[in-house]
């Protein structure tokens, strides 16, 4: 079951889900709009290696915005810290942003029960596109979970700002994979 807008508001107020800051005007009929935070990351190497950490470059989105270029993956983040120990969140790009040619979060929309933090956004433009910090870029829906709950306690917990891939930490033999 998906939460309706009024139930999202109620759950945010009674603590069953956390959205900070919470803005009532960002509640939709069955989702909550999230905004683009001020920081972007890009990988700096020509080849990204899944078995090691990859260097990144950080950009701040200024008052005049920032032009995203096609063929480049940008890691952004939500302004809002979102999470729940009760509801499963799913984040998708807003249709109005997709109509500008920007793919948002197309490979990993599901959040884990127990994750609380800013969401990293995978941004891929089809053509040059100027984006602005604080623009409504995505929407999160919340679904009721059924069954025993094992809360998330992984490497991205309490994330602030965009997080590069930690996939390399999951490799067998690494200290993080042993945990």
From TrEMBL:
One GO MF term attached to the UniProt entry: dCTP deaminase activity
CDD domains, per database record: trimeric_dUTPase
Superkingdom of the source species: Bacteria
Protein's GO biological process: dUTP biosynthetic process; nucleobase-containing small molecule interconversion
Hydrolase among keywords: yes
Classification via SUPFAM superfamilies: dUTPase-like
InterPro entries xrefs: dCTP_deaminase, dUTPase-like_sf, dUTPase_trimeric
Keywords, in A-Z order: Hydrolase, Nucleotide metabolism
Annotated EC: 3.5.4.13
Principal EC category: hydrolase
NCBIfam families hit by this protein: dCTP_deam (TIGR02274)
Protein name: Putative deoxycytidine triphosphate deaminase
Organism: Kitasatospora setae (strain ATCC 33774 / DSM 43861 / JCM 3304 / KCC A-0304 / NBRC 14216 / KM-6054) (Streptomyces setae)
Lineage, opening ranks: Bacteria, Bacillati, Actinomycetota, Actinomycetes, Kitasatosporales
Annotated gene: dcd3
């Amino acid at each position: 079951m998906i939460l309706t807008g009024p139930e999202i508001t109620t759950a945010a107020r009674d603590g069953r889900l956390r959205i900070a800051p919470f803005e009532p005007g960002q509640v939709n009929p069955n989702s909550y709009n999230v905004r683009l935070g001020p920081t972007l990351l890009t990988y700096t190497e020509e080849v990204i290696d899944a078995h090691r950490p990859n260097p990144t470059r950080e950009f701040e989105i200024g008052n005049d915005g920032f032009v995203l270029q096609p063929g480049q993956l940008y890691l952004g983040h939500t302004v809002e810290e979102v999470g729940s120990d009760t509801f499963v969140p799913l984040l998708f790009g807003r249709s109005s942003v997709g109509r500008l040619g920007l793919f948002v979060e197309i490979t990993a929309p599901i959040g884990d029960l127990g994750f609380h933090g800013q969401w990293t956004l995978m941004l891929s433009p089809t053509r040059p596109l100027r984006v602005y910090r604080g623009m409504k870029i995505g929407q999160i829906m919340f679904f009721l979970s059924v069954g025993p709950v094992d809360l998330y306690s992984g490497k991205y917990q309490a994330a602030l700002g965009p997080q590069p891939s930690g996939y390399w930490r999951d490799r067998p033999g690494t200290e993080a994979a042993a945990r």
